[in-house]
Amino acid sequence: MRQIHPSQSGTPVQQEPSLQPEIEAGYGTADSRIEPETSVQEAAVPWPWSHLRRFRFLFIALLAVLLLAFLPPLINLGRYQRSIATSIGNSLGRPVHLDRISLTLLPLPGFTIQNLVVGEDPAFGTEPIIRANSVHATLRISSLWRRHVEFSTISFSEPSVNLVHAADGRWNIEGVLLQASRIETAPTAQRHAGPAPRFPYIEATGARLNFKQSQEKLPFSLVDSDFALWLPDPHQWHFRLRAHPTRTDRNVSDTGTIDIESTLSPGPSLRQVALNLQGQWHDAPLGEASRVLFGRDAGWRGQMNLAANIRGTFGDSAVTTRLTLTDARPADFVPEKLLNTQLECFATANGIFHSFQDIRCSWPPAASSHNPVATLTGSIPNIHKLREASFQLTAAKVPSSLLVSGLRILNPHVPSGITTTGNLNASLHYGASSSDSTTPSLAAAELLQGRLSLTDASLKVPSAHSTNQSPLSALTELEKAAASTMEDSDPTSGVTLLSQDVHISSVNHAPAGQPAPGSSRDNAPGFTLAPTSLLLGGRDPAVLTGHFDRSGYTLHLLGNVTAPRLQALASALPPLGEGLLKALPPDHPVMEPFHVDLTATRSWRGPQSWQQTARSVRQSASLHHSSRHTR
To answer: Is there a contact between 118 and 129 (Cβ–Cβ < 8 Å)?
Structure first.
């Protein structure tokens, strides 16, 4: 019998009375009819479990984090500690000791080593080459599914590294580098693993690098050092270093920063390891830099920048250096113009930088817009035997005005009105001759020989009324007034004090005619100032001679002078005039020429002292006694 759907008949179909209230209550659609049944099912589930179901993934993640954080310390790796230390020691070629090793899983899986100590080769001493309180090694996650475990980074925290230079010229780091070069490794940044393990990125922060000469620890060290080493290519290492130099025997601070960037290519020996290095010591105050280099303050202020470039191998390389001084000046005063200059040097380094040949330095640098004023050439066969080094300093046609400008930087009392002419030519040689090579006790003055000449020289100073303001002046007001009447009334005119060539030559002993005021310095080898005529107001010029050696110098002034001209000389050349006027006899004439016989002595670090020459004092006493006897 065919069934007829209610919609197909014309007779309306009566609905169940029990369902009518639900439809009128708002459950009129098919979808909405299911909801009451679902709500009933949810109402049957206790409410805490419904919330747990919604956050079950969050709870699982939190539990995993807790396990990763608290589970590693519970894993005992002590039984692997010895094998790990042995593995590290074999890769470095040195015995390795560590106190504790622990597993870390966050943020990346790895190991943390406490108190790592890398022992030293007995040939270089007993102090460890590396000591680090903490070392963290991060695993490459992809290597966990392979048999060969690889590390992506190895980080040292505040390690102490001792670099030892033995008496035979070897470095203790040589063995470590050669041992590491024998291990076949892949580049650090290689994405996919290969037959050879990838070289890790090794870094250190807060490191201290100490230097030792055999068993003696040197006072020079590098602190607050950041170091990085990686392998960009299969046969090339790249390292970067930033450090601050210091000394352990001096209180130094703000010594600038040393930045070094270099690539190394392995070789069968250290001499054959290829090297390409760029280094710079920058932002170094001159005072603190001199403390680091020489152990004392050299008395200069300003900024120093030293750049170096080395290419070749450790056994034979080309070295280029450039020294830049910015706003340099003496520490005790600020001159009108500060010193800004550069010096460039080239050399060939041999024997792992134990010997330097073909040294050539130029000032200013040859590549600058100015022609070099001075050139230094030479060689250092052995850096540990500097007495065997030889140098040649040459200067050609250096204008005297440049010398005066340099004198104004060195001395605050040089007047601005002086004018000079002439050119300086110098040729100096440092080094023992072949006949003296067997005499190790040669003085430095004997090793330095040569000649300096100031040709066509003249020195003119303003008239006396404009020079008597020098702080070196010891003239009375009466002498100043007399001096102003003795010179030309034209204020623009000047007084000529020098008009001849000046020569300084080396000698192995003081010449027979050299006056000897009683100082043993006059008989020492060194340099002598040839008799130089000075126009100091007498009928005949006064004569100045001198002797210079490694201890200091002596000067001898003999002849007729006037007080104003002597005052002008002292003002124009303050180093020469220091104490000169105070050595004059108290009863000297004010306007008339009078005879002087004065000697100055000075050590290089001491003050200058002028006094009457001993024989002159004896002659004056004899004349005074004769005059009394005649009367």
So the answer is: yes
Task: Copy the structure tokens of residue 145.
Answer: 């599914």
Say if CB 533 and CB 510 are below 8 A apart: no
Task: List 321's β-bridge partners, or say none.
Answer: 308, 345
Rounded distance between C-alpha atoms, residue 170 and residue 158, angstroms: 26
In a 3-state reduction of DSSP, which class is residue 580? Answer: coil
With b meaning 16 or more CB within 10 Å and e meaning fewer, what string describes 490-506? eeeebbebbbbebebeb
Where is 571: in which H helix or E strand?
helix 563-572
Q: Which of 17-21, 475-479, 501-505, 585-589: highest mean pLDDT?
A: 501-505
User: Rounded to the nearest 10 degrees, how much is the dihedral formed by the CA atoms of 206, 207, 210, 215?
Assistant: 130
Can you give the pTM of this predicted structure? 0.77
Element (H, E) at 70: helix 56-70
The distance in angstroms from the start CA to the end CA of the chain is 183
- DSSP character at residue 402: H
Q: Please determine, for residue 517, whether its predicted confidence score (pLDDT) is greater than 80.
A: no
Tens digit of each residue's pLDDT (9 = 90 or more) over 148-186: 678 889 999 999 999 999 988 889 988 888 888 888 888
Cβ–Cβ < 8 Å for 172, 140: no
Please identify which residue in the block is written with the tokens 């100015």: 370
Spatial contact of 280 and 262, defined as CB atoms under 8 Å apart: no
Angle, helices 78-92/173-181, rounded to nearest 10 degrees: 100
